[in-house]
Specification:
Number of helices: 6
Shape: globular
Structural class: alpha+beta
Strand order of the largest sheet: 1-2-3-4-5-7-6
Helix content: 25-40%
Distance between the termini: 27 Å
Radius of gyration: 15 Å
Number of strands: 7
Length: 176
Amino acid sequence: MTTRLRRFTELEQAGGPLIEVYAEVRAPLLHLPNYAVSTFADRLERHGREPGFGAVLAFDADGRPVGYAYGNTVEAGDRWWKRIGDVDAEYTSSPALALKEIGVTVPYRGTGLARRVHDELLAGREERYVSLMVNPAAGEGKVQRVYESWGYEAIGAVQPSPDSPVLTAMVRPLNS
């Protein structure tokens, strides 16, 4: 399956395809308030205005979005870190990349596309660390194990909103 990756730094160009592919990737969860497309669109709008916003989208041969990742820069006092609680100052002493979302559509899972999108998002970033939050129940723990195989380590638990599940906060050096 041929795919091409495209980088974005402006939400205006990335927003429509991001929402489209999100809805397909998260289809089984869209009935849950935290995963609703409208909730995602609101988060995306907020994240797209934050410093260091970047996104990578994967497109199939027909130009349809089939994978994505996006994030932005977070500083020590950012709500990203505050929600986690007691975080080692090593991670917060300089700007970090918060990987807010990553996903690929069902036909592309297990093909390495998620890793390609992930690595392209991280390429060229100046931050020292990258952090993400994962639902430890996703894929019966498989998703968190994938992140561990990519070099992430758990640093705490967080519930970003009352409608969200408790997530595992993870971090790794950016250029590892």
